[in-house]
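User: Sequence recovery, please. Input:
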């Protein structure tokens, strides 16, 4: 199927062609990446030139762009153009209208050797894909490389699912300032592009799935809105975004933390179940959120399953409400599991603040996206919460046990 522009894509292309710095922001799978890549290859076709497409991590660029989006762009927009991929070095050669040959390179800011090689060249376009994950100092470094004398207007392209309003993209494109609080006179323009603008290219049911996301996730990934931090919440979007792009070392200890529910009815709390590890650098890695609302037997089965699947060292279980029930129900399934029970001797804020500080110090990584857990972290104001934030509590118990120090506990080894 050949490419046909939508009205929103026409608006986006106008900004891409008219502004030195152009940002497409908005919801998930709204076609932002597709339309920018199309523009990059169109520019490469006009004159002999070099262009760079970069993500935070190079392996993500290979999987998402080289294996998926770029082949789709070439097939739908340039089916008869002999564009060739050099897989070994990570670039495409494009015949230009002036009789030359252009190059479109792929890069990642996390690979120091590769980025230094790429930054040895000058480009007519640099496109920062998923730029909410790329630190601003890396963006500034990329700015210095947009200096090729190819005859093309120099362009900086960006796209993202909008993070919080303290992110550099919001400051730069909407407030006219940079992270150091200085003002700028950069030629900037932006267009919000959302999934509804790309509905003809989405799988059936995708929009419905986005509508079921937690409130803040829905605002970001469906409506494409920048978010305010929740006043009083101990976690911010900036902290979560930093954790999601942070690298981690090999694991040295793994726990499954449980903040149990002791009833199973429509008004019951969820059972918080969070898998976390301590890595070789003695930093935390939150690896999965397996929380659910279920009967005691069912959540206990899930806890044991996660413990066994990920070869955890022990289970950390809060027992203020459940007493001996928690370890008894776990040992009924697997009596050999080590259960470390913890009691909440202090309030939720006092327990959570040291863990929040670990995020502030960039000592915690998130191994994958966990929308419900991350929403609970950034939306919960602990001194006014009405329902127990069980996912948050389980995360706090896990990282406290791994990183903060000993809590008031009693240990039972089955």
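Assistant: Recovered sequence (414 residues):
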């Amino acid at each position: 199927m050949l490419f046909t522009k939508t009205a929103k894509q026409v608006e986006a292309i106008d900004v891409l062609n008219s502004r030195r710095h152009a940002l497409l922001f908005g919801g998930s799978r709204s076609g932002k990446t597709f339309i920018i890549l199309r523009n990059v290859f169109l520019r490469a076709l006009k004159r002999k030139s070099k262009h760079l497409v970069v993500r935070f991590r190079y392996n993500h660029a290979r999987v998402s762009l080289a294996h998926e989006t770029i082949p789709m762009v070439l097939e739908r927009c340039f089916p008869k153009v002999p564009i060739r991929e050099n897989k070994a070095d990570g670039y495409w050669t494009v015949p230009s209208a002036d009789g030359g040959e252009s190059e479109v390179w792929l890069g990642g800011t996390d690979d120091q050797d590769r980025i230094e090689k790429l930054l040895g060249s000058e480009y007519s376009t640099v496109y920062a894909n998923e730029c909410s994950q790329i630190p601003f100092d890396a963006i500034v470094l990329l700015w210095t490389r947009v200096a090729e004398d190819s005859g093309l207007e120099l362009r900086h392209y960006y796209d993202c699912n909008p993070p919080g309003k303290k992110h550099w993209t919001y400051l730069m494109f909407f407030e006219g300032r940079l992270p150091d609080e200085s003002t700028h006179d950069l030629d900037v323009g932006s267009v919000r592009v959302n999934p509804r603008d790309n509905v003809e290219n989405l799988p059936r049911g995708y929009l419905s799935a986005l509508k079921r996301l937690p409130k803040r996730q829905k605002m970001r990934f469906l409506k494409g809105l920048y978010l305010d931090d929740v006043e009083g919440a101990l976690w911010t979007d900036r902290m979560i975004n930093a954790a999601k792009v942070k690298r981690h070392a090999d694991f040295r200890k793994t726990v499954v933390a449980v903040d149990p529910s002791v009833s199973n009815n429509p008004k019951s709390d969820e059972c918080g179940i969070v898998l976390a590890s301590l890595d070789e650098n003695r930093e935390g890695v939150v690896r999965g959120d397996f929380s659910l609302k279920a009967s005691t037997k069912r959540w206990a089965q899930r806890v044991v399953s996660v413990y066994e699947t990920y070869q955890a060292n022990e289970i950390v279980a809060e027992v203020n409400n459940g007493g001996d029930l928690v370890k008894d129900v776990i040992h009924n399934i697997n009596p050999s599991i080590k259960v470390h029970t913890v009691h909440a001797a202090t309030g939720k804020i006092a327990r959570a603040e040291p863990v929040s500080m670990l995020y502030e110090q960039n000592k915690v990584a998130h191994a994958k996206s966990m929308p419900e857990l991350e929403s609970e972290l950034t939306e919960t104001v602990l001194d006014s919460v009405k329902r127990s934030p069980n996912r948050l509590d389980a995360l706090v118990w896990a990282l406290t046990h791994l990183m903060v120090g000993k809590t008031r506990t009693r240990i039972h080894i089955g």
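The chain has two domains: 7-221, 237-413.
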